Amino acid sequence: MLKSFVVISAATLTLLAATAFAQVTKTAPLDVEPVLRVPSEDYRKNWVQLGTFSVLADKPADGAKELHQVYMSRQNLEAYLNTGTFPDGAVIVKDVWNTKTDVLTTGTASFAGELSGRFVMVKDAGGKLGAGPRSGDGWGWAFFKGDERKRTITGDYKVDCLTCHEPARKTDLLFLQGYPVLRK
Ligand code: HEC
Questions:
Q1: Closest ligand 1 atom number to CA of residue 141
Q2: What's the pTM value of the predicted model, to 2 decimals?
């Protein structure tokens, strides 16, 4: 029993690792549905940062290889805190930063360097957004490389996104454990 559990976990991890930095559908950049664009407003300044994930380097002593910072508008955040669900059209942006790591007076610290890319999710409970192969399971889904805001390389969200988000199914496919501001 225990053994088969271990085998399944290893298979799952291999799957996650395989999808980790690959856009698996290998889609050439295309104009994304307008609703899925990176917001034109200055979300880093005007929205609320829900939380940060640091993805460690292969040798953890080297610090973090990426920092992931997640943002949402204050209005949508408050709607969630009041109702427990995100309103249709609510946008979540995840910045993926390459890092620099240095010994500071706090210790070995990693901090944001160049922007590697951005992930956007848009709440779409009714599936009305018309985001085609980038819409389903209650959300629209897209990834943008570097500074790009409109041209996505996401083909089919089920291949490019959902496999990795499946473990968070119980929390609407979001990794809520990383967002202190959403805790009650
Ligand atoms: C390699 C696995 C993986 C893939 C592929 C992936 N994600 Fe994620 N995503 C995660 C994990 C894990 C988190 C939270 C932890 C982190 O960012 O390190 C996350 C967080 C996010 C967040 C912040 C909100 C949340 O879910 O907590 C957004 C937005 C997001 N992903 C969008 C996408 C979109 C859109 C795609 C497809 C284009 C995608 N992701 C593909 C694993 C993945």
A1: 35
A2: 0.90
CA distance 45 to 32: 24
Q: What phi, psi does 159 have (nearest 5°)?
A: -85, -45
- How does DSSP classify residue 6? H
Structure confidence by residue, pLDDT tens digits, 122-163 = 999 988 887 789 999 999 999 999 999 999 999 999 999 999
Length of the chain: 184
Domain layout of the chain by residue ranges = 2-182
Q: Is the CB of 141 under 6 A from ligand 1?
A: yes
Counting from 1 in the atom list of ligand 1, the atom nearest the Cα of 168 is: 26
The class that CATH gives domain 2-182 is alpha beta
Q: Quick check: CB of 64 below 6 Å from ligand 1?
A: no
